[in-house]
Amino acid sequence: MAKVFITGVAGFLGSHLAEALIAEGHEVSGCDNLIGGYLDNIPSGVDFHQVDCKYLNTIKKVLKGVDIVYHCACTAYEGLSVFSPNLICENTGQISVTVATAAAENKVKRFVYCSSMARYGSQEIIPFTEDLIPAPQDPYGISKVYSEKIIKNLSDVHGMEYVIAVPHNIIGPRQKYDDPYRNVASIMINLMLQGRQPIIYGDGKQKRCFSFIQDDIDCLLKLGFQKDVVGEIINIGPDEEFITINELAKTIAELLNFKLKPIYKPGRPQEVKLATCSANKARSLLGYKTKTSLREGLQHMIDHIKLRGVKPFRYHLALEIVNKKLPETWRKKLF
Description:
Blueprint: E1 3-7, H1 12-23, E2 27-31, E3 47-49, H2 56-62, E4 68-71, H3 85-105, E5 110-114, H4 139-158, E6 161-167, E7 170-171, H5 184-193, E8 199-201, E9 207-208, E10 211-212, H6 213-223, E11 233-236, E12 243-244, H7 245-256, E13 263-265, E14 274-275, H8 280-286, H9 294-308, H10 328-331
Parallel strand pairs: 1-2, 1-4, 2-3, 4-5, 5-6, 6-11, 7-10, 8-13, 9-14
Antiparallel strand pairs: 9-12
Helix pairs in contact: 1-6, 2-3, 3-4, 5-7, 5-9, 7-9
């Protein structure tokens, strides 16, 4: 049994990871500032601390005696980061420095960092493989790469094992669906369940792969304990169903028996057109297998949102740069 600490434990990814670790018999604690999570996401048995990762002395205290840290906390708002760079970078890059510093001080054995596909930016090679030189296109992606470098540096100097996980476009129950700034599938489901048409940026031909949460969790569990993953960067998620945002909207509408007439708005600045990651390294090292299809994953989300009830969208984050490039959806609160 290990003592495991999860940052962002009330969030979508962190809460599922905590649940799985507890089921395996580990002692789990964690923290969250509740910007992007819900208290009722936190599984029973987690020693929860409602603290912000930016406070070094507090994080040092809560990491005492911990064996493994999973750093999931982040304001993961890629599109918004162009307009709220200070907020996003502070809660992506700076908190990574803080948590890694506290982990090194407390002689944590292993640090698992949840990075993002945003690290790759636009690449000529698709799907993205881990050996590609990162070329992030927005402050969020830049902060993720910065965080990776800081974690590697501090780990090498202070003798802490590290792994860089790259989960991408995760979907599933517990994802925040009243957030107008991220989670395209959740936004579309919440809108359609209210009888409202989804809004699509650009021509909707942007292509992505979507990863069901449990398929990612199976791999993340191994990253905390497997010996042959130390120092590795590993994409986690499927590469089989590479679909457009138009196709995503159509699939959700079919599952809901909803008459689809999407509303199109101008594209967002710096959005990557084609983005998917190769899962070959995860297959080789972690035995990754896509067990849940996109349609099945979306149905699980629909069932969860129906059970919790639709919600109005909360414009809960400050816009730091307001100009004509700011999406109308955010400026006029159209969701």
